[in-house]
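The instructor's notes for this session suggest beginning with a concrete chain rather than abstract definitions. Hand out the sequence below and ask the class to guess, before any prediction is shown, which regions might be ordered.
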Amino acid sequence: MSAFIPAGLASFRLAPTKNPLSTTGTGVSILDKRPTNYFGKKVQQISGKSCSASRSFVVQMSNEVIFDEDSREALRRGVDAVADAVRITMGPKGRNVVLGSRTGPPRIVNDGVTIAKEVELEEPTENAGVKLVQEVASRANDEAGDGTTTATVLAKEIVSEGLKQVAAGANPVALRRGIEKTCAMLIEEIMKVAVPVTENDYEKVAAISSNDEQIGKLIGDAMRRVGRNGILQVETSKSVDTSVEIEEGMEIDRGYLSAQFITNPAKSMAELLNARILLTDKRISAVGELLPVLEKVTQTGQPLLVIAEDVTGEALSTLVLNKNAGVLRVCAIKCPSFGQRRVQYLEDLAVLTGGQVISEDFGLTLDKVELEMLGMAQKITVYQNKTIILAGDNHKDQIDLRVKQLQKALAVSQSDYEREKLQERISKLTGGIAVIRVGAPTETEMESNKLRYEDACNATKAAVEEGIVPGGGVCLLKLAAKVEEFKQRLTEPDEQLGAEIVMESLYAPARQIADNAGADGQVIVELLKDQPFKIGYNAVTGAIEDIVESGILDPAKVTRSALEAACSVAAMILTTKALVAQLPASEDELAAQEDVGQLTL
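After discussion, reveal the predicted structure:
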């Protein structure tokens, strides 16, 4: 078993296979300070020369610089490459995309952000456009968990129409202002037309997001079982069947304190299985405070989640060092809430996980912590802005007792604010977590299904947060009329052009859905422009009907975040004047790099 590495050595490079560990008199193992032949990944680049002082060697790469229309056209070609690959998946009759891999079997997916991330072009200037559209998809995905295809299609349209206006002599900065002002107005309008989601709508939202009624039914049932404040979590199943299990758990609106804790880079999250949980209201900066509990947890071989007021300085550096060294699987997050309410939330977590709150208010300090004082969880998933703790059913009786105590406090409370916070705590304790275990006959199908379940879960939760709007691209299409009115309030002609660019892009999602269904998208758009707000195109039946009545619904949050992300990045592209891109390495440069890699300190 690896020994824990204490503080004070975070600045030393770690060589797992060559750098020996030595033991101090206290029985704590530390990194040997002697130099090794380990090369860090980040080294200072110098033009093909060796630096005897630092002993770092690098070959200087060449850059390409292009200006004006050439730079914007290169970006446009990159944007189009991603959008063309993603847009064919849109709507109920969208197609799949096969993603090849050098290390495993190809994947067949229907998920916008997954496809976008896989696009890589040979031409570096065009690839810069690819990266910008990937940013659009990632921002929409991070915000709402869905809507990445819509965001990509919108971005393509805004960039395409905007570049035409720039080429015709429009001022790019004024266009950008017009785009941003119009986007802000549209977001307000989306929130005005959104209506609260009902339990009967869960199934419809999930089915539209996944293009599968069976997935919609399963997620709708799961949401009704865990309630509006419950959590949906998707995992892979060991069988071919898909099942749902309701387990005790809680979501905390706090994320990891350092990206170094990430264990799954593809999803930017840290996963800890069968983990211990340290709960304290103390601010931890000195590693000496953590050493006793860290040594005890290291001996068990279990992961550890530290929940404290804050973890900084030497303490945080030590946790990161040991995580990267493979000595201890660990992550740290801040406590939810503030002041005395923070302790109350920690007590709720202690009941949920079977642990104790380490607080001086209770006569406990970190140096007195024993293993039995730590909470336990079957699985902990830590994202940038939230943490999901799946605790299991071992403490159901204690949870029920805690809920009864909170309900009694709620009944006698006279403060509206206090009642709101008590209700929030009750909801977190009673909501639970619906674990959806996705099965399939093959690994390829399982991966594809899992992505669809994740999108559907995210869409359903987004609908709970901000309500629902007509789906199928209809909400954006009908709001184009608002842009026509808003444009008249803009005094600068080029700002009005920016508003027109956004207005034209709003037709793109509905047009693409119709195109993918085999209809003429432009004809469908023209037919819908003068129809009432809820009348849209049903791509499944090919009919123009009341799509809200037909259950074609989108979360307002997904529509809003897609529009925001698309307008933001597209406006930046339009104001581009120059583009600097790194050229691929030549054969001589690659040979020089290979020689450098064989050198040792």
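Then share the key points. DSSP finds 19 helices and 22 strands in the chain. The mean pLDDT is 87.
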